[in-house]
Design brief:
This protein is mostly helical and 517 residues long. The chain is built from 31 helices and no strands. Helix 14 packs parallel to helix 16 and helix 15 runs antiparallel to helix 16. It is globular, with a radius of gyration of 26 Å.
Length: 517
């Protein structure tokens, strides 16, 4: 521990207290990317940047976020007006519908007619599926209540042939339109247009309302339609839950992916966990690569996702210990995500921490950035540990440090700041799943979630049911992945671990958190 503190001391006092500044030309020459957006934001935030310069540089953004909009407003007094602003909803809707442009116009006209009608349900129920769904999706919550009447199996199945019903189904469930929710227990049309996720959501709804037979029908279609392996695995797991048929666990044992569901299946079947790849790369200089430069990473991504790119050759250019995150990222893409990489870099600093903390930091870093030190998110979360600027500044203040945000691109500094934040989170949260929720969604969000009477309490299908019904989709999926990573990394660090005990403890507050009593 003394050597770890000495490393911290050297790192803390090796940085300049002066914040970086950027010129217009420096930012202008960067390739269009999320990384450039971050530097545009920093440029807009400088006192020396003029309003005219702001009006010019804003047109070079890749994606406008709240930080960019706010900085631009403060500099110019107006909101940015650029050609690639998000399209209005009505324009986004057109290519997603399964009707012609004429059908779309008819749907729009029918919407106005039905809204004004004295018998909206009777008029609505006679329309073709696309028009029915279009009207339902766009008439507003109050008017949808007037459409909340019993429909037949045939009517329901007709509606499921429209792509627009994917949104309709979510509205029916979220707004608790009880007469229409009864129709969700019907099987969909054999030629339905529902996505895998919609099938899964309806399956979960049916299961929560004790209709296991309907749930199994929808889970099976979710599995068959899944475009991602983890989505297929999720559906197979819930098929097992709905039916008790262990045959569905065999689907999980054959999966190439490593996720919560495949690990649970191996626990149930008492089978060893799958092998994963932890590369050991040589120590060699890469003159063409600066691991702490986000623009270098932006240029790599341009090559990585270029059609026809030779990814094996590209990975070879980064076969070095300092670029282990980039190398693993490229190799994963080369394998179409079938090769599962679990790097363990920065052992000089990580090995000074307890193994459980090492596993937690590795688990989060793998999910946040795939160990790419110069990562930048759309919301400008920074570095390997993807720490938001406000939190960087908060931690720096607590530590009595002056810091430039670019210092988060130093992986050692990122680890120190993440470890500092985790010290705070683990005062209140003891289970890695809840810690992951807090790291992603905030400790306030996590506290509110787990204190609810309908989450993480003893009951049927728990804790899995609570993990699936969270409305914060990002935190929901993030938590599953970090928990999986944590268990894998514990084993790699020599701590024998299975995922099931961590899951089983989630309904026991004395073992998971300091918020529930």
């Amino acid at each position: 521990m003394k050597s770890f503190l000495f490393i911290l001391f050297l790192l803390v006092f090796s940085y300049s207290a002066e914040a970086k500044t950027f010129t217009y030309d420096q930012v202008h020459q960067m390739p269009t990317s999320i990384e450039k957006d971050y530097y545009i934001w920093r440029y807009l935030s400088q006192s020396t940047t003029t309003a005219d310069q702001a009006r010019s540089i804003i047109h070079e953004t890749h994606h406008l976020n709240d930080k960019l909009i706010g900085s631009y407003k403060r500099k110019t007094g107006t909101a940015p007006r650029i050609s690639h602003k998000p399209m209005p909803y009505s324009q986004q809707l057109k290519p997603q519908t399964d009707g012609s442009s004429q059908s779309w116009r008819i749907g729009s006209a029918k919407l106005q007619s039905i809204i004004r009608s004295n018998t909206p349900f009777g008029e609505w129920s006679q329309e073709e599926p696309f028009v029915q769904c279009y009207v339902f999706n766009n008439c507003g919550a109050a008017k949808r209540k007037s459409l909340n009447q019993q429909i037949s199996k045939q009517q329901y199945q007709r509606m499921t042939t429209s792509k627009a019903f994917n949104k309709s189904a979510k509205l029916i469930m979220s707004e608790k339109l009880n007469n229409l929710t009864n129709a969700l227990y019907y099987p969909p049309d054999p030629n339905n247009a529902l996505t895998s996720n919609t099938h899964f959501d309806i399956g979960m709804y049916a299961l929560m309302h004790n209709n296991n037979q309907s749930a199994a029908i929808y889970f099976d279609q979710a599995r068959q339609k899944a475009e991602k392996q983890n989505e297929a695995d999720r559906a197979a797991f819930w098929l097992y839950q709905a039916t008790g048929n262990k045959g569905y666990l065999n689907h999980l044992l054959k999966s190439y992916d490593v996720n919560m569901y495949t690990l649970i299946a191996r626990d149930i079947m008492n089978i060893r966990y799958p092998k994963t790849i932890t590369p050991t790369l040589p120590k060699r200089d890469l003159p063409h690569y600066n691991s702490q430069n986000p623009i270098h990473w932006a240029n790599i991504k341009l090559k990585l996702f270029k059609p026809g790119a030779n990814l094996n050759s590209l990975a070879g250019q980064y076969e070095s210990e300092e670029a282990i995150g980039v190398y693993s990222y490229i190799k994963t893409e080369e394998s179409k995500k079938r090769s599962i990489y679990y790097p363990m870099p920065y052992r000089d600093i990580m090995s000074q921490l307890p193994k459980e903390r090492q596993a937690l930091i590795y688990a989060i870093a793998r999910q946040e950035s795939r160990f790419v030190p110069a990562s930048v998110s759309r919301s400008f979360a920074l570095g390997m540990m993807q720490i938001m600027p406000f939190l960087v500044e908060h931690i720096a203040k607590q530590r009595g440090e002056n810091i430039d945000l670019d210092e988060m691109f130093d992986p050692h500094k990122a680890i120190i700041y993440a470890n500092h934040h985790l010290n705070y989170l683990t005062e209140y949260l003891y289970n890695p799943l809840f810690i992951a929720y807090a790291y992603n969604g905030g400790i306030g969000f996590t506290k509110r979630l787990i204190q609810r009477d309908d989450y993480f309490r003893k009951g049927a299908y728990e804790p899995y049911l609570s993990m699936e019904k969270m409305t914060n989709e990002e935190a929901r999926e993030y938590g599953k992945k970090v928990l999986t990573n944590y268990v894998i990394y514990l084993n790699k660090l020599g701590v024998s671990a299975r995922i099931s005990p961590f899951l089983q403890s989630l309904t026991d507050p004395s073992r998971t958190d300091n918020f529930r009593r």
